[in-house]
Amino acid sequence: MDTFNTPLDLVRNRPVEVPNFCVRQDRLSVAVRWFQDNFSGEVLYAVKANPSAWVIDGLYASGQRWFDVASLPEVRLIAERCPEAVMAFLHPVKSRHAIRTAYTEYGVRIFALDCEDELNKILEATDNSEDLTLIVRLGVSNAGAVLPLAGKFGASTFDAPALIEKARHVADELGVSFHVGSQCMDPMAYRAAMMEASRLIARAGVTVDIVDVGGGFPSVYPGLTPPPLHDYIDAIEDAFEEMMVLENADLWCEPGRALVAEASSLLTRVELRKGDALYLNDGAYGGLFDATHAKWPFPMRVFRESGEVKGEVSPFRLFGPTCDSIDSMPGPYDLPADIREGDVIEIGMLGAYGEAMATRFNGFGDYTWAAVRDFPWESLYVARPARRISEGAEIVAFPRTKRRRERLRRR
Description:
Oligomer: single chain
Shape: elongated
Helix content: 25-40%
CATH architecture of the largest domain: Alpha-Beta Barrel
C-alpha cells in the first residue's frame, strides 16, 4: 500500500479513476488502546463494521484478540488472519451448517440466540456439546440511538426469563446481551438496558456468567458529537456493579464503529456538474451507503491539483455512478461554489460501514487504497494531558478505571 502525507499528495500523484480509501492505521491503535485501557472486561471487535484485511491485521497487531463474528465467512476471515483469536458467533440467527462448521472446524464455542428454536438448533448442530457459552440476546429500547436497530432481534420481556432458564441448563457458561442501537448518543441507555437485563435474570431465577453490553458506541460526525466515551464506561461500570449476576461475572462489549470510523476516508471524483448536482464515481451502492440510506452526516473537503478548494460554499446534491435513480444523496451538502469536473471530494469518518457496504452493482465497486498520515477531523479519542517520566520524555496517559483494577484483582 502506497503512503502519502496527505490525500492532496495522492491527488497530485495519481488520478482518482476509481474511488480511493485513505487508510489511517494509527487511528486503529489509538481506538483499540483506549478500549483496552478503560473498559473493565473483554472488548470484541464487531467485524461487520469493516472486515478489510488492513483493519483486521491492524487491530490484531494492536493487541485485539476477541472478535464478534456474524457469519461463516467472517469466522474464516478471523481464523485465517488471527491465529490466537477468540471468536463469538453473535448473530442471533444462523444456519445449522454455519453453526456446525464454526464449532467443528474453527473451534468456536460462543453462540448467541434469542429464541428457543435457535437454542435447539445450536444444540443439535453441535451434538449437544457441553462446552458451549450461550449468549441470550434481549430486546431493549433503542431510544438513544441515531440509527435504531430494535425489532429484528432480541427476546421479549415476556419470553426472555424462560429462555434464560432453559439456556442455563445446557450452557457451560451463560450470558445475556443486547444492542442499544447504532451511534448511541445517551450513555444512560446502557444503564437502562442493563437494569432491564438484571430484572429478567432475576425473574429467570438462575445465575449468569457474562453480561455483554453489545455495540452502539458512537463516533464524531458533523452535528453528531456524543458525550465523552468515559461517560459511557462509567454508566456501564456503575450498572454492572448493581446487576443480579455472579460476583466474578465477566463484562463484554462489541464496539465496531467506535474502533474503526476514524481510520479511513474516501476520495471520490466529480465526473460531471449540472447546476447544483454533482455526479461522483462512488455512491449509494458503494462506500456511501450510509450517506444515502441512513442520511448520515460526514465531514467533507475538496481537492484539485492546485490544492484544497476553499472559499464561498453552496448547497449541492450528490449522485452516484450507477444508472439507478435511488443512487442519490439529496443533502444539501455545502461544498465550494466553484467545484467542477475532476475535483476530488474527500469524505471522512468512513472507516465504519464504508468498505463493508460496497457492492458490484452496474459493474462499479472497484477501489484503490493508500495510507495517509494526516487526520483533519475531530476525534473521539482526545488525548489526556501528557505526564512526564523520569527521563523527561512525554507519554499520553490513558488511565485504567478504578473498577477495572478491582475486577482484575478479583480474577
